[in-house]
Specification:
Largest sheet: 8 strands, parallel
Shape: globular
Number of helices: 20
Radius of gyration: 24 Å
Number of strands: 24
CATH topology of one domain: Diaminopimelate Epimerase, Chain A, domain 1
Length: about 600
């Protein structure tokens, strides 16, 4: 299986982004908010969800051809392929034809001949697999790209490696006022992730250092950073965070959740050039993984400027839904600002139509909100970041204004609070079809599983985390016990309930490689052979269901299932070609798959037609 970042860096999502620290053709536009209104009634929404999540086996024959909408030769015709369309019947085809960035034919090779003209490019797929482009509906491209170009600790495995990398980065960047970056594993520091300021003081004594954990829920700072922020033994914890302390009250050097902001506000902000540079890095990586659409899970106004800049230059080779960040220090007065940003920044390949609410933290530092206390931690039940009654009012107002709400919820209490808020919005507004979704879903109380379908809430899982690595075995299960551990990442149970599941990576918290994520969803095993037995094997899903979660279901979340997410006539030619057929290999080899070609509206953004 392919090399990847170590498992230690792969979870505890909803990062408090590093961004907070510091062509001539005109792209086709997203469908506007009207696309979100297509299925208003619960019955219609449920019917679509059913079609989206069902899966069939591999067929050896091409489906009946789909008629094109206009006559004339195609620009490109792919033939002799194993084309898994992910349409409602999960049909297969041999050929696809493209004209002006749209799919004009899907069917047999014989039927495609009629679309071949003197200038048509005919590409023999040699039985290679073609899929719709993947869609990642929870990711942090700008912050992740900037982190990769800063003091990047991702992929390192020991404290010694961290300190060496930090010291080297500081030496090679003598003019940087602050040393910023991140990617360290909470598992290296044990439960609670209490990283020491003295360790950083040894390697960088003269400048402030602030390094976020791989999940973004903790920060490691040195004495100089604490001094600049005015944090000492007398500084109280913020309501939504924790300053880790020694027995005498002195700050240790690790900050949890909202406490990170006490230092972060003093660090120099990233400028537009830095943000666009990070975004370019992310786009290249995502296109290479076959990803053509995303939902950015934490967007502020400065990030929208970066998206707008690349889109105006014709360099935004992704479709982007922006999740505008709900500021926990404000209330319903934010709605006016969200509406202004939506009106201004929806256009081209960007739609600012979603609001992100972070409802809790993570289990590893005991901030995920729980219905029952963590074991061995007194009455600690985590932190509900937004008071539940305020959450209901906020979601009701956002829903009435036709915003999609994208929740971060890890613990079973936070998940219930998110569902309760959607239920309140439905009672007040009816079903407005805004396609709210809850991401991460580490621990769901089984009583809440049927509520996803009932409320038309999409379950947005990060499937890479659903195997028993050190985060599960050392930092989670000992503190919740075996009974609750049975319901960690219950992807199969949610799917079996009839609810829609969609997938995201949460990169740079963990790899953006969809094939590693699909393999774990199907096997519940580590994609690098990290485990010998599947973790909660009853929660495995089939390959067709996993592919749908990364294509047509994620397109539904992004309100673009009418133009992307499957290979059907009339849709954009957002397509990928793989080096192997996923249905013809053992599940344990899915992670080894490579993308040979990625098309966005029929144009290569990774690979080239001549290389096939």
């Amino acid at each position: 299986m392919r090399d990847r970042a170590p498992a230690k860096n792969r979870r505890a999502p909803g990062r408090l982004r590093f961004a907070k620290l510091a062509r001539t053709s005109t792209p086709a536009t997203f469908h506007k908010v009207t696309a979100m209104r297509t299925f208003r009634t619960p019955l219609a929404a449920a019917s679509l969800a059913f079609l989206a999540v069902i899966g069939t086996g591999c067929s050896d024959t091409a489906s009946e051809p789909q008629a094109g909408t206009t006559s004339g030769p195609a620009d490109v015709v792919f033939t002799n392929g194993s084309i898994y369309t992910v349409d409602a019947s999960r049909s297969w085809a041999e050929a696809v034809a493209i004209r002006d960035g749209r799919i004009v034919y899907v069917g047999s090779d014989a039927g495609a001949n009629a679309l071949v003209g003197p200038d048509t490019r005919v590409v023999d797929l040699d039985r290679r697999m073609m899929l719709p482009g993947f869609q990642d509906v929870h990711i942090h491209p700008i912050g992740g790209g900037m982190e990769a170009r800063a003091c990047d600790l991702n992929g390192l495995t020991t404290l010694e490696e961290y300190l060496e990398a930090i010291e080297t980065y500081a030496r090679e960047h003598p003019d940087e006022e602050w040393i910023l970056g991140g990617g360290w594993s909470m598992a290296v520091f044990g439960p609670g992730a209490n990283a020491s300021k003295e360790l950083l003081d040894r390697v960088v004594p003269d400048r402030p250092v602030m390094l976020t954990s791989a999940d973004g829920h903790s920060a490691w700072v040195n004495s100089r950073a604490l001094e600049i922020a005015g944090i000492d033994a007398g500084t109280p914890d913020p309501e939504d965070g924790i300053i880790d302390r020694a027995p005498d009250g002195e700050p240790l050097g690790s900050l949890q959740e909202g406490a990170i902001g006490l230092v972060a506000r003093h660090a120099p902000p990233a400028d537009l050039e830095t943000r666009t540079d990070g975004l370019r890095y992310a786009i290249d990586m995502l296109n290479a993984y076959g990803i053509t659409s995303i939902q950015d899970a934490h967007v502020e106004e400065e990030d929208l400027a970066a998206y707008r800049a690349l889109d105006q230059r014709g360099e935004l080779d992704l479709r982007v839904v922006a999740s505008l960040w709900w500021d926990r220090e404000q209330g319903l007065e934010q709605l006016e600002g969200f509406e202004r940003l939506r009106d201004r920044d929806t256009g081209g390949r960007v739609r600012a139509s979603t609001v992100k609410i972070m409802q809790d933290g993570v289990m590893e530092n005991f901030t995920a909100a729980m219905l029952e206390p963590y074991l061995g931690q007194g009455d600690t039940r985590g932190i509900p970041m937004v008071e539940p009654e305020l959450l209901k009012r906020a979601v009701t107002a956002l829903d009435a204004a036709d915003f999609q709400v994208h929740f971060h919820a890890i613990g079973d209490a936070a998940i219930r609070q998110a569902l309760d808020a959607v239920e309140a919005a439905r009672a007040a507004n009816g079903n407005r079809g805004n396609r709210h979704h809850v991401s991460h879903l580490e621990l769901i109380d089984p009583a809440d599983i049927p509520r996803f379908r009932k409320l038309d809430v999409v379950a947005n899982f990060q499937p890479l985390w659903a195997f028993a690595d050190d985060y599960i075995e050392e930092l989670t299960m000992p503190f919740i016990g075996p009974e609750r551990s049975r319901w960690l990442y219950p992807i199969g149970s949610v799917h079996a309930s009839g609810a829609m599941i969609a997938f995201g990576s949460d990169w740079s918290v963990s790899t953006a490689n969809p094939f590693e994520e699909i393999e774990v969803a199907v096997t519940r095993m580590g994609p690098k052979g990290e485990t010998n037995e599947p973790f909660v094997p009853d929660e495995r899903i089939t390959l067709p269901v996993a592919i749908a979660a990364f294509t047509i279901n994620s397109a539904w979340v992004n309100s673009q299932e009418d133009v992307t997410g499957s290979i059907e006539v009339g849709k954009y030619a957002d397509l990928i070609v793989l080096d192997r057929n996923l249905f013809d290999i053992p599940p344990g080899e899915i992670s080894e798959t490579r993308v040979l070609l990625t098309l966005l509206e029929g144009k290569p953004v990774h690979g080239d037609l001549g290389s096939l």
